[in-house]
Amino acid sequence: MAERKAFPLRIDPDLWAAVERCATANIRSANAEVECLLREALKARGVKLSPPQPVKRGRPPKESEA
Questions:
Q1: In the chain, which stretches have pLDDT less than 50?
Q2: Please, are residues 19 and 34 in contact by the beta-carbon 8 Å criterion?
């Protein structure tokens, strides 16, 4: 999986508060909500993107004893 790009963002506090409220309503982090909103905006403009790669979560598999 390709490494995710970190990007500092200057944003109006009222706009950020709205993003955080939407994120809470959608049970997402604010960062994930921003990514979803950007994908939706690009899709509305006709920009085609590949679907996001899911993040692997949970415990790593146990090593088998040989």
A1: none
A2: yes
Residue 49 falls inside a structural domain: no
Q: CB-based contacts of 30: which residues, under 8 Å, 6+ apart? A: 16, 19, 20, 23
Provide the 3-class DSSP secondary structure of residue 23: helix
- Tokens at 61, concatenated: 């598999």
Q: Which domain holds residue 38?
A: 13-44
Distance CA 51, CA 47 (A): 12
Residue 40 within a domain: yes
Q: Which amino acid is at 54?
A: P
Statement: the pTM of the whole predicted model exceeds 0.85 = no
Domain assignment of residue 37, yes or no: yes
